[in-house]
Specification:
- The structure is a single chain.
- By secondary structure, the protein is α+β, with helices and mostly antiparallel strands.
- The protein has a single domain, classed as Translation Initiation Factor IF3 (2-Layer Sandwich).
- Helices cover about 30% and strands about 30% of the residues.
- The chain is built from 2 helices and 4 strands, in the order βαβαββ.
- It has a 4-stranded mixed β-sheet with strand order 1-2-4-3, covered by helices on one side.
- Helix 1 runs parallel beside helix 2.
Length: about 80
C-alpha cells in the first residue's frame, strides 16, 4: 500500500509541514505519494525532503498542472 497526501491549495511552509508530519507516521522505506501545486511548493518541498534524508523517486506533472511526487522515507540514507 502506498500512502497518499494531497496538499494542493496549501501554501509554504504548510506544504512541507504536512508532508513531514505524514512521514513521521511512516516506517523507514515506506513510500508516500504527494500531490502538490506548481510554483513554490514544487520548488521547495522536494529540495527540503532530500535535505532531510528522504528520496524523491519521481516527479510527474499532472494534466491539471499539479505535480505528483513519489517519496521514499529515509530513502537517501544507507541501509
Amino acid at each position: 500500500m502506498v500512502n497518499r497526501l494531497d496538499i494542493t491549495g496549501e501554501v509554504c511552509p504548510v506544504t512541507f509541514i504536512k508532508v513531514k508530519l505524514k512521514l513521521e507516521d511512516m516506517a523507514s522505506g515506506e513510500q508516500l505519494e504527494v500531490l502538490l501545486d506548481d510554483g513554490t511548493p514544487i520548488k521547495n518541498v522536494p529540495k527540503t525532503l532530500k535535505g532531510d534524508g528522504h528520496a524523491v523517486l519521481s516527479k510527474e506533472k499532472q494534466p491539471d498542472g499539479s505535480y505528483l511526487l513519489l517519496v521514499e522515507k529515509d530513502g537517501a540514507k544507507p541501509r
